[in-house]
Design brief:
Number of helices: 3
Largest sheet: 8 strands, antiparallel, barrel
Order of helices and strands: HHEEHEEEEEEEE
Structural class: alpha+beta
CATH topology of the largest domain: Cyclophilin
CATH architecture of the largest domain: Beta Barrel
Strand order of the largest sheet: 1-2-9-6-7-4-3-10
Distance between the termini: 81 Å
Radius of gyration: 27 Å
């Protein structure tokens, strides 16, 4: 009986040591939060993919999203499109090919947004406004001016 009590105590002490050792090396809540913050910062610091957008002989920088839709779009470049006017705030064209989508309702469109409506309608917004429609974001054209109320040729290039 004494022998079984000794064995039991040895097992119990061993288990307590293992548990305490695990707690000692387990990350604290603060360490877990710091780790997640570092991952978020790394994600934000990734090199964004930039392309050129040429409108009326002027070149604008566009910063693309890091998603499948934007990647599929880039893989097609360079492309030039005769885009139609719609609603006094956007230019659009229905493309022959389709893209992967992850649409959502942004609630607000910013001037310069490049979006995909459905799976094959490329849209460039040249005015900011609120919307209830759903889009997949491709990117954003920096410093885009008002493009006027006529159809326009827009060239996208790497």
């Amino acid at each position: 009986m004494k022998k079984s009590i000794k064995v039991f105590l040895i097992i119990l002490i061993t288990l307590v040591i293992i548990v305490l050792a695990d707690e000692k090396y387990a990350p604290s809540k603060e360490e877990l939060i710091d780790s997640q913050n570092e991952k978020n910062i790394e994600s934000e610091n990734k090199m964004s993919l930039n392309i050129n957008v040429v409108i009326d002989k002027k070149t604008y920088n566009a910063v693309l999203e890091e998603n499948e839709t934007a990647q599929s779009f880039v893989n097609m470049l360079p492309q030039e499109y005769d885009m139609s006017e719609l609603n006094g705030n956007e230019k659009y064209i229905y493309l022959d090919n389709t893209f992967p989508t992850n649409s959502y309702s942004p609630k607000h469109i910013e001037k310069g947004d490049i979006m995909l409506y459905g799976n094959n309608c490329l849209v460039v917004f040249y005015k900011s406004f609120d919307t209830s429609y759903s889009y997949t974001k491709i990117g954003h054209i920096e410093d885009l001016p008002n493009l006027g109320d006529k159809n326009i040729v827009i060239r996208f290039e790497k």
